[in-house]
Design goal:
Number of helices: 12
Distance between the termini: 22 Å
Mean pLDDT: 95
Radius of gyration: 19 Å
Shape: globular
Strand content: 15-25%
Number of strands: 7
Largest sheet: 7 strands, mixed
């Protein structure tokens, strides 16, 4: 599979949303935009959430294998794509005569109010009210079940030291992991981010027409588009290539990726797929214990 060319070195710059002083109304605007992005269906393959579900199934070895997992969203935020992926995935499992699987929402900063509303709409989604630090690699599926740890548009938030701990923790305490990103240091990702930066001039009227504050900070003093620009381009700068991602696992071992896979019994894979034409590309990075394939 051809991959997009990376244009510049990775830079771990600061995102506004990561700061304690970032106002909640800015975060809410961003979270609603992310949900819309996951739902947007401009491709014959379906929405990004539908395509992510299919990529996840393929990476785990198909419906039969996927039905053995509990899926833990390690950085769920306000819920991310889980409310969209869960029904699609379970629909495919039931169509194959298999039982539904569970999804669990966790975060270092739990959004219990949002999660409670999500869980009320699906018996297959639950959440952990207490803070769960992805760096510590806490297993939630129990000793009997298999766990797939998911990082939906969140892995780029970790610097290299933290990201290494997150991946090592996933390898040591889970049975699979999946990373999805919609930003990157590539021309298509930067062009798609530019379109997203302009989107508040349309979406604010649809989603926040009743809020004078959102309208004011979009059309009079454009704080919201500026916020999208800063965090959008910084997210692009923070994202990693497959080689940079796997180096987090192998750099302390002195092993090549194939040697690390052989020694540890894992299979690492990655890829990319245009999910929102013409530029919106989903970049994915997966790891699965070979005994589970």
């Amino acid at each position: 599979m051809a991959t997009d060319r990376v244009l510049f070195p990775r830079l771990h710059l600061a995102e506004v949303e990561d700061q304690s002083w970032c106002p909640s109304w800015l975060r809410e605007h961003s979270h609603k935009a992310l949900v819309r992005t996951w739902r947007m269906s401009l491709s014959a393959r379906g929405s990004p959430a539908v395509q992510a579900c299919n990529i996840l199934l393929d990476a785990l070895g198909g419906p039969q294998k996927a039905s053995e997992y509990t899926f833990v969203d390690a950085c769920a935020g306000a819920g991310g794509p889980t409310p969209l992926i869960e029904p699609r995935l379970n629909e495919q499992l039931r169509s194959a005569g298999l039982d539904s699987v569970r999804f669990v929402l966790t975060d270092l900063w739990p959004d219990v109010k949002a999660w409670k509303a999500i869980a009320s709409r699906s018996k297959n989604i639950s959440y952990v009210e207490q803070p769960v630090d992805a760096i510590k690699g806490v297993r939630l599926s129990g000793p009997e079940g298999k766990e797939c740890r998911m990082f939906n548009l969140s892995f780029h938030h970790f610097d290299d030291v933290a990201a290494e701990k997150v991946l090592v923790g996933a390898v040591e305490s889970a049975d699979a992991f999946m990373i999805f990103e919609l930003t990157h240091r590539t021309l298509p990702a930067l062009l798609n981010t530019t379109l997203i930066i302009l989107s508040p001039f349309i979406t604010t009227l649809k989603d926040w027409y009743w809020s004078p504050m959102h309208l004011f900070f979009t059309y009079i003093i454009p704080i919201i588009p500026i916020f999208y620009a800063i965090d959008g381009y910084v997210s692009c700068a923070r994202c990693r290539t497959p080689e940079e991602t796997w180096d987090l696992l192998t750099r302390r071992t002195g092993l090549s990726v194939p040697e690390w896979e052989l020694k540890n019994g894992w299979e690492l894979s990655s890829g990319q797929q245009v999910v929102i034409p013409p530029f919106g590309t989903l970049y994915w990075y997966a790891g699965v214990k070979r005994e589970n394939l």
